[in-house]
Amino acid sequence: HLATSLPLPSERDHLRPRIDLIAFMIDIKSKYSLKNVEASLAHVDASFFLGKVCFLVTGVGRVNYCSVEMNAIWKLGEVYCSPVLFCELELEGIRVATAQRLVRMLQICAGHIPGVSALCFGSLMRNSADD
Amino acid sequence: MESADGVARTLPSIGRLSRGPPFGRAHGRFGLSPSGRLLPPAPRSQENADPQKTAFLLRKQWTLYSVTPLYRFSNAHLRDYARLLSAFIAAEKQKGLAVEVGVELAIKVAVSSLPDLKGSDQDQAAILVQLSSRSPASPKNSEEKLIWSGWFCCVSGDDLSENVAEDFTCLPLFLANGAECYTSIVGSWFQKTFDCCFRRLAISPLNLSWMAAMWTGCKVDKTTSAMELVFSVPCLPQPLDISYAIHPEDAKALWDTVQKTPGEITQEEVDVFMDCLYSHFHRHFKIHLSATKLVKVSTAIASAHCDGIIKFLQSQYLTGVLMLLTELAISQIQ
């Protein structure tokens, strides 16, 4: 399900299936997208931040178009204990690889992979932050 | 060291380019910007720097390039370099890469040094290359017309010069004004002779917004032109540019309320400043400028375009602007 911002409209709540993963997309060329994501984060229930949220940063192929400061994005990942993925949607190879990664993460979050749960993402994050 | 608390304010020695642990995970590829910068010192009274000498640099459009360190370049051989470059240009013209159709122009090359354009004593003095043409019709009353100028400079480039070996000269910033064909001829001569590499220096919207904030805060004597920001709107069938002009005093008043520590600027202050301007615009026009791309910034000090084009307007702040551009050039090289 694709939405431009949160909260999702309440009319269709009863028809909506369970949400297993929320991927917030930030376009590095648009500061507006970062502000939008920051505002939407406030509407997410705290239980999602145990591995069911990730940040997807797009447009990283072109450094010279960068309008968003990288520190702000890293800080967001740290504060919300969620992984930050980078991709460039204009390149098909990277687009496909990123989609595969997200699908894999989704499978884990939905509980389809035995032995691995969404909570593992959180512990992986902590290890890399302490180096 | 956490980036959360306005790092640059407490540790001025880290100053401009922070390349230590906090940025360890973010690579230079991702438009890395420091969380704080030191402002260039207020323009010193012109005891050593003669504004006349650098006046010719003002009000011209310069295209920016970053240059890797030059191998075995020596200030003592400038005349020889001029001679060699002039021979090279003549040879290129012979080869048929004629730059001007029809009129045969004799091109004279002058290479000189501009010792005033440096930030610290460790910096190399700037090197100026000028191409002038003399019409062969009247060789005696040589009205030499300047057809192309280019200059290499380095202002406070300690980060780079500290790390290079002995034989290398660090002049990371190159500015060119004139026909592109001459730029490529001169550039290829330098690349062949000194084993260096030229690359166009583009300025990202993030860095342009830094420039807008830094230059707004500068004191200028006379009444000045408006501060102008130009934005390009993406993803439209026809390109749309938005030009946002702000009265310079209003902009300065806004910046003065935002900036806390004189002499230093942090990323947060730049963000707050730009957000105020964007929300003002949104209130009137219902357009989110933060979703567009900032392509050009013009203030009374200088004007900069994201394609890497700069125009200096005030000689007293020339070194300050060059310091910022040198920093950008160095980060493109590394």
From TrEMBL, chain A:
Keyword annotations from UniProtKB, A to Z: Centromere, Chromosome, Nucleus
Superkingdom assignment: Eukaryota
Principal cellular location given in the protein's record: nucleus
GO cellular component, one term: chromosome, centromeric region
UniProt-annotated location(s): Chromosome, Centromere; Nucleus
Coiled-coil regions listed in the entry: none
Name of the protein this chain belongs to: Centromere protein M
